[in-house]
Specification:
Layout: E1 2-4, H1 5-33, H2 38-41, H3 45-65, H4 72-96, H5 106-126, H6 143-158, H7 173-197, E2 204-206
Parallel strand pairs: 1-2
Helix pairs in contact: 1-3, 1-5, 3-4, 3-5, 4-5, 4-7
Length: about 210
Amino acid sequence: MTVPTRLVAVLRLVAAGITLVAVTATYLDSAARAIVNPFNFFGFFTIQSNVLAAVVLATTAVLTLAGRRAPDALVLARAAVTAYMVVVGVVYNTLLTGVPGGVELAWANTVMHVLFPVYCLLDWALVRDRAAPPWRRLWLVLVYPVLWCAVVLLRGATDGWVPYPFLNPVTGYGSVVFYVFLIAAAFVLAGAGVFALGRLRPVRPRG
């Protein structure tokens, strides 16, 4: 099956644009109700992963419209952010739906936790416009989550702010270490699934 290359690129730009609008609207809505610390707002992995995925997808789309092939580094970045969005979608929709807190704007919440994760996964799995990432690069999926965990733990130990209670040092470092390994396992599993899906590409862009 083939689809116009420009259509694929435009859809990616639209999806990325809507997601960035959702993030911006969430920030403005939060700021309208209380003083918002930007470091806290953007400290949540959900926000970071949505922004990263939107930027990576938009960059890919721009290169496509310019008639240029995405470099291997960008393909690996797409694989990584797709894995992050899968984790965000699965964790929210299985564990956090209906739990107080989080994104107050219903439509923005749906975009960031449901629609964009699904779109990223389908775009990665179905569109054949890149080479499959090599399995030896799977470890790269962990780089960003590990850095994120390190920053969160540092902030928790210094200014006391953590985005999620299970990473709070006051619960005991044994518990925190357990959850860090659980997070790492989740991203490895999601990354492996994304790398495997990267070998299926039934839709081939043309034109």
